[in-house]
Specification:
single chain; alpha/beta; Alpha/beta knot; seven-stranded parallel beta sheet; globular
Length: 180
């Protein structure tokens, strides 16, 4: 077994990336404090062809050296928009026909393994602050909530880990179930 070289990976150029069809998923970052987390979500979004990021509240925006450190130029390819209020981003997405889901532990949440993204034409996922999670007023405005099952003592993941888990799960359900 041999590791593949970069030129063997079939990577898209930045121009090709902008032209390729995206996964009908938008990501909303609700007051994410860490630029490293934001950069990581950019990088994951690039890898999974996520349609757009919405950076809200105190979430930093590019250009930013700390975001770049983990994004590795994904902040230059993934489309993004800033909103001072997360609720405004959610309203815009809902008006555009997205079903919006908070990634949060709430009453009547849908467990991630049970969530069927194929039931929806367009999905937006709201990931929250590292300490407080998704704001309650934002949760109230969402169409539902998806929860990652957890079994240890912490019952929380880092926001960039949560994004990786959820985005890969939904992407794989769409791509490998023949729905995308």
């Amino acid at each position: 077994m041999r590791k593949l070289r970069n030129n063997e990976l079939g990577r898209l150029t930045a121009d090709q990336y902008r032209q390729v069809e995206k996964t009908a998923i938008a990501v909303v970052l609700d007051n994410v404090r860490s630029c490293n987390n934001t950069g990581s979500v950019f990088r994951t979004s690039d890898a999974l062809l996520i349609e757009k990021l919405y950076l809200c509240g105190i979430t930093a925006t590019p250009p930013n050296a700390e975001i770049h450190k983990t994004a590795l130029d994904a902040e230059k390819t993934v489309e993004w928009e800033y909103f001072a209020e997360t609720s405004d981003a959610v309203e815009k997405l809902k008006a555009a026909g997205y079903k919006v889901f908070a990634i949060e532990q709430v009453e009547n949440s849908i467990l991630l393994p049970d969530f069927d993204p194929g039931k929806y034409e367009k999905i937006a996922l709201v990931f929250g602050n590292e300490v407080k999670g998704v704001q309650q007023k934002v949760v109230n405005n969402c169409d539902g909530s998806i929860e990652i099952p957890q079994f240890g003592t912490k019952h929380s993941f880092n926001i960039s880990v949560s994004a990786g888990i959820v985005l890969w799960d939904l992407f794989s359900k769409l791509k490998y179930s023949g729905q995308s």
